Amino acid sequence: MKLTIDNLRGQGPVDYTAAVDLETTPRIVRRINAPSELAIALLAGASAFVVPAVSGRIVMTRADGSVIFTGYLTAGAEQEYLGVGQHGPVVRYHVTAQSDEALLDAKALPDRAPFAGRTAGSALKQLVQDLMPGVFDVSGVQDVDTLASYAVNPEQAFSHHAAEIARAPRASYRAMNGAITLQPVGAATYGLSESDSAFSPEGLTLESPALLLNDLMVVGLDEPQAYVRDYFVGNGLSRQFYLSQKPFAQSRAALIEETFSGAVLDATTWQVSDPSSVVSVAAQTLKIAGGTGQDGQTTVSFVERMELGGAIELQHGDVSFLGPSQGLLGGLYAGGVAAAGCLAGFQVTPVVGNSTIQAVIEGAATGPMITTQSGHRYVLTTYVYSMEVYRSQETYHSSVHPAGAGVGGGAVAADVRFVLEVHDIDPNNPASWIATATVLYDGVVQSAPGFATYALVNAANMQCSVAYTYAAHISTAEVRTAVPSATYATQLVGRLVDGAQCEITSAPSLDFYPQYVPALNQLIVVSYRGLGRAAAHVRNTASVATQQNGSDDGVRGAVRAVKLPAARTATDCENAALAIMDDSVAAAWSGTYLTWSDFLPGGALDIFPGDGLAMNIASRAAAFVAIVRQVEIELADPANDRGVYAIEFANDLAASLAVEYGTGAKTLSLGQLPPLLTTGQVGSHYVLNLTGAQITQVTATTASIDAGITPASGLGIEVRLNDFGWGQANDRNLVGRFSTQTFTVPRLARTQSYFLRLYDNSSPPGYSRYSAALHVDYPL
Questions:
Q1: What is the DSSP letter of 297?
Q2: d(CA 661, CA 559)
Q3: Secondary structure (DSSP) of 671-696
Q4: Residues linked to residue 348 through DSSP beta bridges, in sequence order
Q5: Dist. CA 566–CA 558, nearest whole Å
Q6: Beta-strand runs (E) in 467-584
């Protein structure tokens, strides 16, 4: 064994091997997805001894040069006076060190937008890049699997986030010898068999607690549920309209909040392609002075993909044109940055002395065109509305569904409404500051992709400056109004100072600002998702049957609140239940194996947390695969590079590896309890939601409904006055069952609600997961 310490005094690594005190056995502790630790004692008996410095770099290797620990001293050495020796006082120094991520943990992470649709490996590399670019070797970081979303909390250290990123796809990370690695657990698996001549039976302890689960209730976060449309009509006086449900709310934290205050663009927000060196930052503005003349070559893009779910406001900025320009501003792209793939953006085209601005939708210019004027400024804004808040399911893993083959992770299809508007400001005309913006486009893109690349600038040849850029989720309620026989227009929900016409209050109600009071007979439609708690109840009937015995029905149940990966919807809860029960219907195993380093399982040269152990101990009826959770090494014979390894292991049932449980989940009321599904029903139990259902006409006694789809053979639409009692056996609050896309139902009061679900002809019938809730509040 060799021990070196670099005390950062310009001397480089100093050999401390001779100073190691063997009366206090050096000890290394490695834990899965956590920093490793070294505890060692040094004797200062020689005059040349230098007390190790805090933050000193410590490296421990074997005689053959293989590394067993690298890290940094995290605290000053603890001093123990032993007496006087030949060279004077003898002091024992107790030194503790933490593995290489201590260097990353000492730095604060930047406040950045959540990762969206990134692989675990990409997210981990990004964190390392944000903190110490180019310092660590990340070539050993594998992609592993995709994370639907992961938010970085700057209050937590790097190692906390590395652990969570690794855990979600059932992987393990390690920081050692200046390198970060990430790989699926069990990538290296070693056999431990009692038939092996090196096996130490007295060193093995095993436990198999009764932890079997075959009936699981999983509780997640608040989720978007019913597809709600509330219908109102203005009377020329009222500003407030009460909603039928409380809308689901997204986090309002800014995704982008850029004022261009630095000397260069912030690398945690933007990535730049600038072959002609025309992009610069000065005087709190982003300046573009040219381009290559080609589409997609000179770009300023957001580092994360933009999830096209819920509602988003993208303020691309206050743009000043300094000459005729050509390119795209504020573009959302289905793939790479190219005009043909632009889902929505602002096309800028040169004309004599100036430019024109026009909306681009699905790669084609459309709608009215604005011609820029010298000295004017143009505020460009895009609003995104989707009834589907999350465009990707979370992915859950188990020993049966390891990294790369998880449960869930499917895309969520949705139509997306884009509203693009331009506010023309003339600095010499104060009235222009409060003038209404010009809407260039207000329409729906069918089956829009779930994620998009956001490029603030795609300059073929731009001559402009941008003063700021801001993006955030806004109220998920989409408000549209129209006077009779006119086209509906989208009304912005938000703050009056931001140009909004109305707001959603906690009542909940839709409140228009005084200057935007709806006119007499003006029609108002508010579309949003209702609020509920994500939950699922899943049973493995095959396991239940094997456990039945006399009066014992065989059910082994539990309730789990899933924290990581976040169970954002009931579908996520179902997939989490499947993954958990993958490992929960077999036996739980855990234990410890104690052996000398010469006799490690499977002939391994070293063992790390995250490695697999294939156990075959017939005399104890133990045949299973477990994952190493902790390795403690006592360097009992350092002169001969020998140590005693205490290897702690467990399978996923004994200690959950890919799912982290939380506490304090909200209690579900009786009406919120999810239906009991078998494992075979998950993914096929529900039929389509009626996401496009709407009311097309209202009279004093009837309401005409368009369900949005024509029911196929064997399907029908059930309409009820309340969102419960679904099924063929209950007719108490039933309005009717219909087999056509359009139908008419009776209206019994000024305020009336209708709940719709699609059903099939199976036995018992399958229904939509969530209702379409249509609410009318019209004068009789």
A1: T
A2: 10
A3: GGPPPEEETTTTTTS-B---TT-EEE
A4: 327, 357
A5: 19
A6: 469-473, 478-482, 489-491, 502-505, 509-512, 523-539, 557-564
List phi, psi (to 5°) of 81.
-75, 125
Q: How many CB atoms lie within 10 A of CB 294?
A: 11
C-alpha span between 347 and 297 (Å, rounded): 16
Residue pair 171/614 in contact by the 8 Å Cβ criterion: no
Helix, strand or coil for residue 647?
strand
pTM value > 0.90? yes
Q: Whole-angstrom Cα distance, residue 474 to residue 389?
A: 12
Would you give the DSSP letter of residue 410? Answer: -
CA-CA distances (angstroms) from residue 388 to 66, 227, 412, 528, 756? Answer: 52, 9, 8, 9, 18
- What is the pLDDT averaged over residues 748-766? 95
Report how many helices (DSSP H) and strands (DSSP E) the chain contains, helices first. Answer: 5, 54
What six digits make up the tokens of 760? 């099939």
**Domains of the chain by range and CATH?**
2-99 (2.30.300.10), 108-184 (3.55.50.10), 259-474 (2.60.120.200), 694-777 (2.60.40)
C-beta of residue 317 within 8 angstroms of C-beta of residue 469: yes
Amino acid at 635: L
First to last CA, the chain: 90
* 177 dihedral zone (left: phi>0; alpha: psi -120 to 50; beta): left
> How far from chain centre, in Å, is Cα 40?
40
Residues 457-501: tens digit of each pLDDT:
999 999 999 999 999 999 999 999 999 889 999 999 988 888 899
Exposure string of 30-69, with b = 16+ CB inside 10 Å and e = fewer, is: bebbbbbbbebbbbbbeeebeebeeebbbbbbbeeeeebb
Q: Which SS3 state, helix, strand or coil, does residue 482 take?
A: strand
At 339, give phi and psi (nearest 5°).
-55, -40
Helix crossing, 120-131 with 158-167: angle to 10°?
170
Judged on CB neighbours under 10 Å (0-12, 13-18, 19+), 770 is buried
Give the C-alpha separation, 388 to 307, whole Å.
Answer: 11
Q: What are phi and psi of 430, to 5 degrees?
A: -55, -30
Q: Are 469 and 313 in contact (CB under 8 A)?
A: no
Using alpha carbons, select from 305, 310, 366 the residue that is nearest to residue 333: 305
CA 119 – CA 405 distance, rounded (Å): 13
Between 758 and 76, whose confidence is greater? 758
Other C-beta atoms lying within 10 Å of the C-beta of residue 218: 31
- The token duo for 29 is 């502790």
Six-digit token string for 631 = 């390795």
For residue 622, what are the β-bridge partners? 617
Do residues 535 and 575 touch, judged by C-beta distance below 8 A? Answer: no
Residue 2 token pair: 């060799």
Q: Are 36 and 98 in contact (CB under 8 A)?
A: yes
Return the residue matching tokens 């001894």: 49
Contact 741, 196 (CB under 8 A): no
pLDDT surpassing 80 at residue 605:
yes
Q: 590 in helix, strand or coil? A: strand
* Maximal C-alpha separation, the chain: 107
- Provide the 10 A C-beta neighbour count for residue 311: 24
Mean per-residue pLDDT of the chain: 94
Q: Please give the C-alpha separations between residue 93 and each of 6, 17, 42, in angstroms, as whole numbers.
A: 16, 14, 5
Share of the chain above pLDDT 90, in %: 88
Tens of pLDDT, residue by residue over 322-368, are: 999 999 999 999 999 999 999 999 999 999 889 999 999 999 999 99
- The string over 390-429, giving b where at least 16 C-beta atoms fall within 10 Å of a residue's C-beta and e elsewhere, is bbbbbbbbbbebbbbebbbbeebebebbbbbbbbbbeeee
Q: H or E segment at 165?
A: helix 158-167
Contacts of 401 (CB under 8 A, 6+ apart): 407, 579, 582
